[in-house]
Amino acid sequence: xxxxxxxxxxxxxxxxxxGTRFVVWVQGCSLGCVGCFNPTTHAAEGGEEVAVDDLLAxxxxxxxxxxxxxxxxSGGEPLEQAEGVAAxxxxxxxxGLSTLVFSGFTLDEIRARPGGPDVLAALDxxxxxxxxxxxxxxxxxxxxxxxxxxxxTARHTVAEVEATPVAEIQIxxxxxxxxxxxxxxxxxxxR
Length: 191
Ligand code: SF4
Hints:
alpha/beta, binds iron/sulfur cluster
């Protein structure tokens, strides 16, 4: 089983696709969209390498507790780690979870990339296309209006995907704050 270079994970999110989802942000993206909201994911050598089996064990635990309906893979650029992402998606699907990927590549580009068809074969929903700051949308799970939602199976409708909340703030037991979603709220310190 391959490994993935991972930027971050969240065990339960309602702002990254239909229902409650385990989210993996992969590390590394060479696309360089101007205005990208997550530039700390760009460096290929950042994050940490995690075995896909270890990620799947955590996802399986959450699924067994009935805490998640699906897996979302975001980034960073998932298609630049296609082998590991495809393995992760296949494992999630075997657990009965739905699968969703955000990619800066378009569907046609993914079809032509090494490993792209393997990712698509394990995928229920693809949100595709570069982020274009001039076409900023930040709703319905699309960062900009050029991006498209593809329902690749009958598991979710596009309307269901578009109904995803735009932002979410999680405060962990240790006080750590995680802000996520397609329109994350900038946090300001009080005086
Ligand atoms: S593809 Fe995504 S992570 Fe990469 S630069 Fe564009 S918006 Fe940022």
